[in-house]
Structures are given as C-alpha cells and as structure tokens.
Amino acid sequence: xxxxxxxxxxxxxxxxxxxxxxxxxxxxxxxxxxxxxxxxxxxxxxxxxxxxxxxxxxxxxxxxxxxxxxxxxxxxxxxxxxxxxxxxxxxxxxxxxxxxxxxxxxxxxxxxxxxxxxxxxxxxxxxxxxxxxxxxxxxxxxxxxxxxxxxxxxxxxxxxxxxxxxxxxxxxxxxxxxxxxxxxxxxxxxxxxxxxxxxxxxxxxxxxxxxxxxxxxxxxxxxxxxxxxxxxxxxxxxxxxxxxxxxxxxxxxxxxxxxxxxxxxxxxxxxxxxxxxxxxxxxxxxxxxxxxxxxxxxxxxxxxxxxxxxxxxxxxxxxxxxxxxxxxxx
Length: 330
Description:
Blueprint: E1 2-5, H1 13-20, E2 25-28, E3 46-49, H2 57-65, E4 70-73, H3 83-89, E5 92-94, H4 101-116, H5 119-127, E6 145-149, H6 153-165, E7 168-172, H7 178-182, E8 186-187, H8 190-196, E9 199-202, H9 216-221, E10 227-230, H10 239-247, E11 253-256, H11 278-283, E12 289-291, H12 300-318, E13 326-328
Parallel strand pairs: 1-2, 1-3, 3-4, 4-5, 6-7, 6-9, 7-8, 9-10, 10-11, 11-12
Antiparallel strand pairs: 5-13
C-alpha cells in the first residue's frame, strides 16, 4: 500500500520515509491538500496531511469518493478538519496529540528575545557594515512580569524558562496547573493579565471561544510597551486590530510564528510573485514586528516525534485499533 503525504518539508521527508520503511510506501508532496489537490489522493486509502490542509465537507467527500478511508494529520491542532463530515464520509481521522513542548516554548522565547533586543535589525545593519546602536535599545527580561495565556505543556515550559530569567509569572487558563503554581505563578483573569504583563505569550488551542481572543479591546488593555508573542494559532489574534494598534504607536515588540490566513502562504516561496494579503504585508512594515512561517515545532526532536506518532496512528488504523490520537474512529 502507498500512503500519500501532503505538505511535506524537504527536511521532513527522509524521516517519514525511514519511519515507514518496511511498512508502506510513501509518496511525498510539497503542496497542500485542498479542493484542487484532493483528486491526487484517488486510490490512496491513507492520506497524511499538514496543519494547513483544508479538510472541509467538500474535500472530505472527494477523498472518500476516491477511496480514502484514513487521514493522519501531522499536527496537534485540528481546527481545519470538519470532524462531523469526516464521520459521515466514513473517514478515520487521527492527529498527533503531543510532541516536544520544548520546541515551541523555546522558539516563543527566541521571538521574544529577538524583538526585545532588535536582533534582526542589528544583524541586517551589520551585513551593511552599519554598526550604530541607534534604535537598538531593548530591556532586561529579568524582573519583567510575564503573562502566559494557556498553561498546558508548552505554556508550562515557557513559564519555566521565564522563571529562569527571573520574571514574575501571571497565568490564565480554565484549569490551574499545579506545576505552574509551584513556580509562583499567579492565576488571574485575562483582562488583568493583559493589563499588567510586560510580555504576553499565547499557548491556547484555536476553538470557537478562543477565536480572536486578542482583539482590539484586548490590545487596548495592554501596556504601550508590551511585547506580544503568538506561536499557537493565527486565529487567536485579530491581525487587522494589531495593525491598528501598531499604527497608533503601541506595543514594543510583536513576534508571530502563525497568521490567521497563513494557508497557501506559509511553506511556499512567494519571493518572486509577492503576496496579495494586505494585512500581512502591512504587519511586515513595522520594525518591531518579527514574523516567521510556523516553524516553532520544527526541530529534529519534535519532527521525529510527530513522524513516529503518525506512523503509529497508521499502524493502529490498519490493525483496526484506536489510540489517544484518534479523533474519528473507524
């Protein structure tokens, strides 16, 4: 049997091929799975997808008509999948519930540190032999109040790193994490966290109740010199509201590894044709904003764990088993 894998990065492909060796053949594609590319899956019982696949009812019906009976998504989030439509189409769906929380948490801090100390601007100047310090002044992280929105595995690691810097910790979650409480974190309402934190990092899933969690009202509550980091899901942040806040001269730094309309943009070379997303283009003009293309998870450790979990999901499906990653059962 051959598995068709969409949205496979060149660094990821050998790991996927090696993990499936002796089990199944795998055909790897760089393109995303959507309505236009779904016909390519015809004849493939198992399809593997990335985080930017569009798996709505139309796509799922096309996959089912072509013989697909299992989708193995190589990500934790699954807000892009219509689970009810998958169930109706008779398609089993599995995700990767957990992988290294250190990968994303460390990258969130990389963004926070980079925007705080103007690292990208300094590096670009140095390449042109401009070694002035004008406009590069940052702040000590030590002593900052850090707000962690979402204290699951990734948020907890982010908080532990903050503790190492010597920060005060504020947290917001539906359930208080004993590990974070032991670090001295104070759980508060979101409005208070936004108003008091010097640095805010988002680590919650994208759900109907968290969509645009950070909107114009939330941004208005933040300190004028706050730093905002989002390595979770783009839909948590109202990007146009963020543009408006930045245009008003607010926020000292913004680090984004995700964007609400990233599908079809991220993981694709747009350097020649450019982009037509005016909001994203505008965000990139602000010197205190750093945007990367959803690479927080992209370490050897994390990708290896994602691949291993995906292979286990496929093995269990073929054996008629379900596991903790199964979203829609056979």
